[in-house]
Design a protein that fits this description.
- It is globular and about 45 Å long.
- A hairpin with an 8-residue loop joins β6 and β7.
- It is of the alpha+beta class.
- The chain contains six helices and eight strands.
Length: 199
């Protein structure tokens, strides 16, 4: 089974999120689709187009979602993942798309990936998570995904945690020697009505 993250423009209007959910439910009923969900980016997101889709299955995105002009379709090749149960169905799905600088030694990339995957052991607000490489994409090299019970888990516990400052930020901060991540990232989060990771 394959997974994709897809970035698209958001529908206009106050019912944009509901319209996305309806489109995703229709797509989820397509043969060969194991999961499809979508949502409008919440305030504080940056680098996206307005909406984020998560698709899993055997059917190609162009077949399942043919009417998404300008979509950035990002294929995921999992490195590692963990599924953790949340008490409520409703949750925040966060997606970070990033680009490791071309020419970075593979040993350095492996240390970077290990620091990301160690975050859940230090930051309890992270529930389910997945780290993937992005094969054959012209821009992104990695996608780091998490689920949180609410936005505070992401914007407070996660982003403000000492582990984040000391072990993860250094890879992203261009002023720190040894940083490897290009400045242009997509930090996107949305509401989800049920589990996304693990489908």
């Amino acid at each position: 089974m394959s997974r994709w993250v897809i970035l698209t423009a958001s529908p206009t209007g106050e019912d944009a999120d509901e319209r996305l959910k309806e489109l995703a439910m229709t797509a989820a009923a397509t043969p060969g689709v194991a999961h499809c969900s979508a949502g409008v980016e919440l305030p504080g997101s940056q680098g996206g187009q307005g909406a984020v889709w998560d698709l899993a299955g055997e059917a190609a995105p162009a077949t399942v979602l043919p009417n998404l002009p300008g979509a950035d379709i990002v294929p995921l090749a999992p490195v590692n993942a963990r599924v953790v149960r949340l008490d409520s169905l409703r949750r925040v799905k966060r997606t970070l798309l990033l680009t490791v600088r071309h020419g970075t030694p593979s040993e350095t990339v492996a240390r970077f990936e290990a620091d990301l995957m160690a975050m859940p052991a230090h930051i309890s607000a992270i529930r389910s998570w997945s780290l993937s490489r992005v094969p054959g994409h012209g821009r992104w090299t990695h996608v780091w995904e998490q689920e949180f019970a609410d936005p505070d888990g992401l914007n407070g516990d996660y982003l403000l945690h000492p582990y984040h400052w000391t072990h993860v930020d250094r890879w992203f901060d261009a002023e720190v020697p040894g940083s490897i991540v290009e400045p242009a990232i997509a930090h996107l989060y949305r509401w989800a009505d049920g589990p996304v990771l693990g489908n």
